[in-house]
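Teaching note: in complex prediction, the entire set of molecules is handled at once rather than each chain in isolation. The prompt given to students was simply: 'Predict the structure of this complex.' The entities are:
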Amino acid sequence: MSGGKFYLTTPIYYVNDSPHLGHAYTSVACDTLARFKRLDGERVLFLTGTDEHGQKVAKSARDAGVEPQAFCDRVSENFRAMTKLMNISNDQFIRTTEPRHIAASQAIWQAIAKSKSPKGRDNLYLGKYSGWYAVRDEAFYGEDELTKGPDGKFRAPSGAEVEWVEEPSYFFRLSDWQDWLLDHYARHPDFIGPASRRNEVTSFVKGGLTDLSVSRTSFAWGVPVPGDEKHVMYVWLDALTNYLTAVGYPDTAGADFKTFWPADIHVVGKDIVRFHCVYWPAFLAAAGLALPERVFAHGWWTVEGQKMSKSLGNFIAPQQLVDQYGVDAVRYFMLRDLPFGADGDFSHRAVVGRINGDLANDFGNLAQRVLSMIQSYCGGKLPAGAEATTADQRRADGELIGKVAGLRHAVAAEIDKQALHLALERIWEIVAMANRYVDEQAPWKLKKTDPVRLGQVLYVLAETIRHLAILAQPFVPQAAAKLLDQLAVPDDFTHRCFNALEAHPLAAGAQLPKPAGIFPRYVEAAAS
Ligand code: ME8
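The expected output is the structure of the full assembly:
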């Protein structure tokens, strides 16, 4: 588990939109995985960024009355600010208008242009596209996928309006990749998660694949096709290539490429599974490159039971959430409230329930009461953790200590399945167990009757809280750091990484600072 490398990516966000709850969600989930792996001793590359080419962005720039590049510069900054706001620890923030990315996109194009399909035909050929296109999704759709609305307009399954397109276009010979892809899914059962998405992709591919239009000629905002500059590359071929650009492609002999490629995981929303699980592996294989280990698709958020949209007035900006609840509370809520992979609903009531229940009453209260007892009963000096004397005491301590010692591995097992909600559940099981231990051992009574036992109990609890705080860092980084400060754990990697759990137990006699609440309760503002 330790000592390896871990390359993970978020989707790159279209710059036509303002950042919202859904974008923050993908970023927070990936951030948690990245932080976890770093603390677990892996060399992590965590990539995010913005997707800036294509018809959709060109149109948004036109509507805003600015040049596309100036538009991208402005909106990309909003996403960069969102990553700061949500405390995202990305190692790179890529923009697809950067020269290094344009070079990488042209290089993959040339590699594909030279390659043959699994059936021995050219992977790239020039033709003419005539069919349906949804600008909102930047996707081509077959007639059989569309439905006609009451307004007489055809719509894609995503609800996006489609338009008829006829233009010269290069095609990627996707139809020849059907068996190859099915074979890859069969031989790598973990390639697509969760299983429901794997089944969905498999049946889509089994249904037959048509060749994919990979260049456009009716607008110019894109990466020019090498050797035929009337064409710009289809935005998805350009966009997906960002995952290679970040590791130095086309320099496949460079240190970053050799260390990090193939990616360990692309985390995506369920809406963009087809691009990542069908087109991307075929492009990579055609270009002679290794495929990512895994693509994991998370679900979709609604808000108070409705699809989020500006027109419905329920569009939630990350800034608004952080101002109202605090960044750690928002992160915790998003990761805990729905199984990672499933859809969920964002409601004020649900957030407040988590803040006042799991955070304030359970974890916050455990920390607060134990640290306050160490302050008032022991003058803030951490007591010694000797072995208990009676069999009952030994059993009680042993149960808690045993569970706490196994927590790192229990959480890691869930993280490796991207079960972020279950990872939190494992942590909170120990919170609950520790709260019961406090009630049963009743240190406030021991203070009068058995000061030696009091010291043992408080030490066991302080060590339990240290474990909980170290393992909670990836999820709620600020609160966990504050708690580790209150336990006087030095603020460095050596003392806060997962190996420190065993290697650096708390030292008896250490002076702890005065405790302060780490998870405040949410109090509704009085109606005015
Ligand atoms: O798709 N709930 O960008 P994008 C949950 N540029 N997640 C949501 C969401 C919601 N309501 N709305 C958006 C793109 N997302 C492409 C990606 S990758 C090479 C190119 C999340 O800005 C979801 O993860 O439209 C989606 O995949 C991501 O935001 C980016 O959406």
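Point out the following to students. The pocket of ME8 is lined by residues 11-14, 17, 22-23, 25-26, 51, 239-240, 242, 268-269, 271-272, 300-301, 308 (CB under 6 Å). The first strand starts at residue 5 and ends at 9.
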